[in-house]
Amino acid sequence: MKRFLAILHARNLEFIRDRAALSWGFLFPTALMMGFALLFSNGAQDLYKVGVSGELDHPFLQSRYINFIPVDDIEQAITKVERHQLDLLIAPDKSYYWVNSSSPAGYITEQLLKASGGKTLKAHKVSGKEIRYIDWLIPGVLGMNMMFSALFGIGFVIVRYRKNGVLKRLRGTPLTATEFLMAQIVSRLILIIFVSVIVYIGCDLILDFSMYGSYITLFLVFSIGSLAMIALGLLIASRLKSDELAAGLTNAISLPMMLLSGVWFSLEGSPQWITFISNLLPLTHVVDASRAIMLDGAGIVDVSHHLFTMLIMMLIFLFLGVKMFRWE
């Protein structure tokens, strides 16, 4: 334990004394969220979104420039209508549709529905606070910042240690590989959670995010998600001793995660093969679970499949990383 705590303390000091990396960890996600909040402050949408439950046999479903999204859970879809995430929800087989009476986009899609003819559907009016784009974006930005901090923070540090001969010197001490790696993982986890909490609180004071779920559940999701991505960073750096190769592999992994994990845009309605690939990425489960907690008020049971998947990923990455790790 003394050896573990000594390495943990040394790694924390090394990060804190690196003022550039510390400042970047705070400034990058904050500036990103502020920029998007400013750009999308008018809440404009280029495409209407309509949820569809049941059989698709209504003339309205042939309308152009509307994204029709199949839904399985009507109650969950109604919540999305209340929060302006869906402009309209229709159930042709049940002769009903739901619209938010305070949504401009909902009013337009309702008029298009009435003008389309076909089977008459009965209206259900709902109300609720609009979910702004920045509310939807914040889980993705925090998750992306965690991903970069985990992959580059663990990967480059261990590769640099190996390249500079630090690992070779440590090998001559009583320190074991497991103690060294656990210290790196715990140190990075503490720093990621600390930075994420400070960024969240600071931006929330300015932008007033929507938060319908439990902060404890959100903290658990971020912690397990961070561990999964830290373990992935450990796997990348387990044998490499070239900065260039480490950077290439890290970018080759982080860029697809950033694009296919729903950070910037929703993957609802995407082809099935994209959804399949997306579910293989740890960042997807971090973003989906945190959005469900923050925007839908999901509890730990509702996001348990995401937590379980991230735990499995963490154990696999950690096992392979420890097995493949070499001092030199």
Total domain count: 2
Instruction: Please indicate the percent range of residues in DSSP E strands (runs of 2 or more).
Output: 5-15%
Biggest β-sheet, characterized? 5 strands, mixed
Low-confidence stretches: none
| Helix content percent band | 55-70%
Number of helices: 12
Question: Rg, please?
Answer: 23 Å
Distance between the termini: 24 Å
Strand adjacency order, main sheet: 2-1-3-4-5
Large-scale geometry? elongated
Order of helices and strands: HHEEHEEHEHHHHHHHH
- The secondary structure category is alpha/beta
**Overall pLDDT:** 80
Number of strands: 5
Description:
By secondary structure, the chain is of the alpha/beta class. It folds into 2 domains: 231 residues, no CATH class; 79 residues, no CATH class. The protein is built from 12 helices and 5 strands. β3 and β4 form a beta hairpin. α2 runs parallel beside α7 and α8 runs parallel beside α12.
Topology:
Layout: H1 2-17, H2 19-39, E1 48-52, E2 66-70, H3 74-82, E3 88-91, E4 96-100, H4 104-115, E5 122-126, H5 133-164, H6 166-171, H7 177-207, H8 215-237, H9 243-260, H10 272-278, H11 282-296, H12 304-324
Helix pairs in contact: 1-7, 2-5, 2-7, 5-7, 5-8, 5-9, 5-11, 7-8, 8-11, 8-12, 11-12
